[in-house]
């Protein structure tokens, strides 16, 4: 449930943004490069997922979790884990939202781009 907003952003919003960027690039350069953008997205998704899973183990140990104690961890370790797993994603989400706010391809701009592309090469 807590991961759902991130997955919605990753699997719904980003691919639609990629489609907008592909259209914008076609208008600017004359070539469509869906494959390149899709491969970069796929690679970044895999790399960031691997990095996040790897860092999760490091963060748990950094918070004071001791594997030998199993479920009998200190209250401080649990508190530190809750803080880290709440604050660290927020630390990365904040600049992402700022960058998203600066995304230059609005709906109005995409309508202009689509009309220019259709005027250039016809409807697809």
Task: State the end-to-end distance.
Answer: 39 Å
Portion in beta strands? under 5%
Low-confidence stretches: none
Secondary structure: helix percent: over 70%
Give the beta-strand count. 0
**Count of helical stretches:** 4
What best-fitting shape do the alpha-carbon axes yield?
elongated
Biggest sheet overview: none
User: How large is the radius of gyration?
Assistant: 21 Å
Question: Helix-strand pattern, N to C?
Answer: HHHH
Instruction: Quickly give the structural class.
Output: mainly alpha
Number of domains: 1
Averaged pLDDT: 91
Please characterize this protein's 3D structure.
- The chain has 124 residues and is mostly helical.
- The protein has one domain (4-121).
- 78% of the residues lie in helices and 0% in strands.
- The protein has four helices and no strands.
- Helix 1 (4-29) runs antiparallel to helix 2 (34-62) and helix 1 (4-29) crosses helix 4.
- The longest helix has 29 residues, at 34-62.
- It is elongated and about 70 Å long.
């Amino acid at each position: 449930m807590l991961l759902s907003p991130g997955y919605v952003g990753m699997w719904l919003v980003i691919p639609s943004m990629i489609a907008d960027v592909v259209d914008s690039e076609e208008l600017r350069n004359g070539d469509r490069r869906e494959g390149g953008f899709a491969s970069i997205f796929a690679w970044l998704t895999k790399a960031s997922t691997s990095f996040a899973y790897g860092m999760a183990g490091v963060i748990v140990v950094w918070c004071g979790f001791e594997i030998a104690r199993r479920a009998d961890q200190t209250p401080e370790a649990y508190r530190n884990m809750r803080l880290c797993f709440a604050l660290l994603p927020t630390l990365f989400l904040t600049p992402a939202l700022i960058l998203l706010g600066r995304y230059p391809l609005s709906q109005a701009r995409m309508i202009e781009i689509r009309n220019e592309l259709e005027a250039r090469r016809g409807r697809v």
